[in-house]
């Protein structure tokens, strides 16, 4: 091996590595603990490890040219797994290429959103007071802002208390922080460019947060966590019941989610090397229960007939009142809700996918613990929520886990040979949502699981490939299929797919498929009328469309009509952060979207029962 | 004495007294501890003890006909000191007739103000939610208010938290409390008429508070106190200096005034038999320092050249943030300020006197520790503030006291005989502002005090009435005039007017007279151009105009041009409470009023020195 070593500087962190000549950037990054997304394992086929070499990039490898577009090559994007380091380099890792501690989806089909944030910093050079100019400090400031084209602002009362001291300390040269129509602070003019917000998607099971630079509109960092409220119940109904049982329950749940949000804010700020005090606004989308729990609005009427929310409008409240630790006079904006079971996350999906502006009929499916489905186009939108359960997020599954290192995330059949893939290519330790779906599809294809979901027992496997058949263990009451043995896992237990896990998949799939069917029926359309089926959410974006089609999870459309839209709800939260004018659009969308309550429909049970079955035959 | 006894019911307290036949109402009230204003001591000459007999009033006595107008007689007003009880009666004691614990001025030339308060209660009968009507609770409420002609309201976020529970507890029948454009609470429909506000005049020395029924616009009760901040300095400059010396000073002073305001709120609520939680808004007028101390705005720049306020606009802030104990989501509105030494109290005087709408030139003088003076008419208003000192409020005077029981409030000369009058006709215990002024005028008239303010010493009194001359005691350094001897006071010490007290009066008078002179000069007018001179404030309303003219305290106009306008600043605070539209008028008045800083004028010292002299000869 050559003794030659090159210096690679990772921007924006500024970390410098000494990289042996010829090592790939992916290897170099991993050896230094910098986690880069590489779903294909470094084969140069998936394009997940896109990085940017801003200056004088090496010529693209052939694999690069296959995976990246011409425009991307021109923008100096390369694949970290293919780029062998031959000289000193400066490298930028785009946020979507970073691997979060948990594999939370941070990218998204972000729509072009005009930069018009609710927070701005305005540099002012004010004349100091004199005997000829005795205007009050507040008038002096507001007059200065009016001269800059920002009339009719008011001074936040808390900021007014600091005003006189700040103006004099800064010699009347300042960057005024304007939030909505309020001036909330005065900073040094040199701080004018440090203006950030954090957009949150508060899911029942998963939280995602994005630090956005409000001067450039770019995502500066992202973070993901498990919603700590899951300890008190996997789904929204369980959490509402907990609040009903324990009178301090609502406060407990609110504190948990706020603590997690604060930890995520600290995390993204650390990543971007900024202080949380330059975060001035937080936007949140979440389902109605998550929204109400966060805002400490009562949740009881949500779960009780006739199922109403306390408040459906978008809410802007002082962040401090909720316990959020950003700028002391920063605010939180929670997006508007459609109904008691269709929340701001769905509104976010609509904004992100542009369904409300679409000329053709499209459907968006956000697969989470609550599966939210929206169908429609410009003139009509219908939405529903289905209690899919947390199976696809790895919960309620015997060997289930989140999509983290060692999770089996892909299962393929090569004849009668089982091929597993794990996240970070670590030894298998459990099964995440995509692996679960893959495993079920594989076993149905192999005939080990019947279309009705029943796993064949040891005595009934004569027609199945023997290599697979011998992996079926246990008895009728507790049948399981060994995906990885003790030897393979090296953690003291094997990883099995249990009969009960298959039932959970059936329930989740049944709920979502019944929802899509009933929305189409309500709209008077069929799958054939769909221009696109958009898959949103972490799970939705990591599954393979052919598998989702094979299992009947999504409407039966040609493969090419299935599109991934990333964490569309989170994208919606970012759009509401970056462009304040979208808040009234969101309000209109929320009020204009029809919602149907599946459980109240007489034909729901029939749809659901039908959808529990797996389609027969290979797709 | 007749054995016959009649029942007298006092409204609104509902107290019932058994009154011997033929006793006057004033005597009956006093014997029961109900304090009624009676400056003339019950002679039927001053009209201070006006009461109302709403049903079947007895025919007016001759003295009544002299003192009350025909219109007042027609409105069933009578004099309590003249009305002898001959049968059962129901009696209403108007607020202005009640004697506060301290003789604080509560009446005022209240201008006709349209009833348009910032707080309203709106009774709603909302349809309960159903499967056919799943609007959120907030939308249901706001839709109901829109149907009542109140569109575009928003739900206060704190109220939103209680909303679902309240609506269900009330079966969707409620009185919504609307404050500004916010819904801040939901109450029982039966509580719809309990809607109150409190208007405060926060003076440097004296606080006055008025409970106003916002359904009728009437003053329901009033209270007065000494500003407890006086412990930390008699005037605004001393208090600002205290805040500069002690870094917790501003917090201390704020806490003191808020505690006093809370005590006054409790007092007026007790008097009107309501709970403080049905007080939804507080309005405040005060000079710039009092305003900033209350709101915890910095006061340092007020007293330091070039003398600017932190914020001059009207401020509406949550009452709870300041520590005020009214409805938990009630608000405080502090009126706008003109400049660092001309505050919202002056704006209140302008609103109350209508100077800003006047076709003729008028001057208003509010005599307090700060003397505020406004001169002008529709197109031009000029104001100034003079450091009169607290002499007329009884402070810095050797035997000075507030205008409370036992204070000498009037001093007359009948030849060489001194005639004293005390408040409540109690034995004299000290000297209040009007008594001080009277005493000085009497001694100047008698020649005991020279026009330059020097008291003649014992050897120099040959030409003075001997009856008075023998009351001069002490030596050159500490000359005094005995107003009441030990025997008369029965409190172990006499009451004297000291040489030093006369100097205080000269300083106060000089400051005010210099202010009025310089405003006239600035306006290009003379006293002859004045249509009216309006006297405001507690002191201003209890002095006798001829005395004020005699001593040169006010511009030299004919007696009939001097009018009393009560506590005009307090009236202004009430107007801002009763009619929210006046708040923008107040803002215009504050911005449109010119202010001159006397101390910066080169000719101030000359005016001041001239004004220190007492005019020679009897008026």
Quaternary status: homodimer
Beta-strand percentage range of chain A: 15-25%
Given the structure, what is the number of helices of chain A? Answer: 20
What's the shape of chain A? globular
Query: If you average the pLDDT of chain A, what whole number results?
Result: 89
Judged by helices, strands and strand pairing, the structural class of chain A is: alpha/beta
Output the CATH homologous superfamily of the largest domain in chain A: Domain of unknown function (DUF4445)
The number of distinct β-strands of chain A equals 27
Low-confidence stretches of chain A: 100-109
Please state the second-level CATH architecture of the largest domain in chain A: 2-Layer Sandwich
Q: Biggest sheet of chain A: strands side by side, in what order?
A: 12-11-10-13-15-14
Defining traits:
homodimer, 619 residues, alpha/beta, Ubiquitin-like (UB roll), Nucleotidyltransferase, domain 5, 5 domains, 6-stranded mixed β-sheet, 20 helices, 27 strands, 31% helix
Secondary-structure topology with pairs:
The structure is a homodimer of 619-residue chains.
Chain A: E1 5-11, E2 15-20, H1 25-31, E3 50-52, H2 62-67, H3 70-74, E4 77-79, E5 89-92, E6 119-125, H4 137-147, E7 154-155, H5 157-169, E8 173-179, E9 182-187, E10 196-202, E11 206-213, E12 219-226, H6 236-245, H7 249-272, E13 279-286, H8 288-295, H9 300-303, E14 315-318, H10 319-322, E15 331-334, H11 344-353, E16 362-366, E17 371-377, E18 380-386, E19 407-414, E20 417-422, E21 430-431, H12 433-445, H13 466-469, E22 472-473, E23 480-484, H14 486-489, E24 495-498, H15 499-523, E25 532-536, H16 537-542, H17 545-551, E26 562-564, H18 568-578, H19 582-592, E27 594-595, H20 604-612
Helix pairs in contact in A: 11-18, 12-17, 15-20
